[in-house]
Amino acid sequence: MATTIDLSLADGVELRISRDEEVSLAGRFGELILRRPPDRLRAALEALASGPVAEMALLTLAGDHAPQLLYHLNSAANLCLLRTTVTHDGHQLMSSSATSPYFIRSRSTIGDAVAYELSRFAVSRVEDGRMVLESPLSHVLVVVHDRRVASLLFELARPLSPRAAAERAPDLDLEATRVVLQQLVDAGLAAPAPAEAAARTPTEIALRQWEPHDLLFHARSRGRRHGKRWGGTYRFAGEIPPLPSVKPAMGSAFIDLPRPDIEALRANDVPFTEVLERRRSVRPPGPAQLTRQQLGEFLFRSARIRQVRASSYGETTDRPYPSAGAQHELEVYPIVHACGGVAAGMYHYCPLQHRLEAVAGATADVRALLASARVSDTIPDVLIVVAARFQRIAWKYESIAYSLILKDVGVLLQTMYLVATAMSLAPCAIGHGDPDLFCRAAGTDYYVESSVGEFALGGSTT
Fold it and tell me: 3-state class of 289 per DSSP?
């Protein structure tokens, strides 16, 4: 059975021939231009545009210009203009396309005495009805067309030589297994298994300390390695209405909060540099219990809505802390353990009206949330759970939405730290949380609104 490596143009790439016989391949990350190429070289490029066609057939078609064609094929691959397909006995096994302008085409040599294994960073998922394989180590997206490749991937969960892999994978001979392995290694999805005593490079040492989900999140939410659109694309405009900038009321029981005198604070507040220098995580709560007056001032200064603004893509808001695109997807849920003037339970802070909305009493789930937030073995006076209405950000931003949410959580927590420090309260951010428990306690949908941050707040430290 014959196995070939076939080439074709990647999705969205066009072959253009101008009036002065200039031939170009144009794609998302660049353009390859050939000015009046020889007839046989031009014929090979036209065959490529109508491919897939075996790479060796293209080189044969180019004749004496084969070295020049190979150079241009490598350049086209590096510009993400090509798709490579492995065909076995007339059936497509897998195809791969570069997704990043940083891709560099390479050809690995597969050794029969070498054991290969799938990268622990490799991820298989479904995209547009296809099984795809990707990795944060890679600048390539692989599409699996044949279940025999999926079987081979299963076997490569442990190190195997090409011959051993071929014996285990059904209906793939040694030649096909070598070619598939070569494509996987070139794509950064498989590699020779490291020897036990092998000296580790700085990169290998660094990769040992990355967890697969963390590195995938880093690669997919920053830069252009993944080849997807990113940024404020408003991809759902005209299809799904955006979430309102102010979350609708969850119930009908509210507690109005005192509003501080901002002008008096401007005149008499602690200097900003002193607040920065004094800022600390205060784990035990202060000697005095937090009060309704203090909680109201804290929330007003850190999280209220100062203004609602209209835009062509829905409303945005102005608040004391910044947010990506002024979307302000974060919601604040004070869970009261002990606060003078406020009954124990879970509340939602209404930032426009500056009031607390009762969500739940001191239920078992609410008590469990408080217990999980013990700081120095003490339950905080108030646990502030920060939740995100995810679609508020995802409606506008593509590829980077969740990373923006985490950045927004960071700036909100820092704002809370500074306000609490200026008020001589006891603040402490908490590095863990239980979104499932939060959703159960608050009655929200995990995929619509769940927790992304926690902050403990105690009474006066002076």
Answer: coil
Q: Are 180 and 174 in contact (CB under 8 A)?
A: no
Alpha carbon distance 440, 116 (integer Å): 45
3 state DSSP class of 3: strand
Q: Where are the beta strands (DSSP E) in 290-446?
A: 290-291, 307-311, 314-318, 330-336, 339-340, 345-350, 355-360, 382-389, 397-398, 426-430
Residue 153 belongs to what H/E stretch? helix 147-155
pTM: 0.85
Dihedral of the alpha carbons of 329, 330, 332, 333, in degrees to the nearest 10? 90
Cα-only R_g, the chain: 29
127 pLDDT above the threshold of 60? yes
3-state secondary structure at position 366: helix
CA angle, 289 then 291 then 295, to 5°: 120
In Å, how far are 255, 279, 334, 354, 426 from 341, measured between CA atoms?
A: 10, 27, 14, 16, 18
- Closest-CA residue to 369 (of 336, 324, 393, 402): 336
In a 13 Å sphere around the CA of 411, the CA atoms on its Cβ side amount to 16
Count other C-beta atoms under 10 Å from residue 210's C-beta.
15
Question: SS3 for 37?
Answer: coil
Q: Which amino acid is at 407?
A: K
pLDDT digits (tens, 9 = 90+) for 8-63: 999 989 888 887 778 899 888 888 998 889 989 999 999 999 989 999 999 999 99
Torsion angles phi and psi, residue 459, rounded to 5 = -70, -170
Report the sign of the C-alpha dihedral through residues 75, 77, 78, 81, in that order: positive
Per-residue model confidence (pLDDT) at position 199: 59
pLDDT in tens, 161-180: 999 999 998 789 999 999 99
Residues ≥6 apart with Cβ < 8 Å to 59: 44, 66, 69, 70
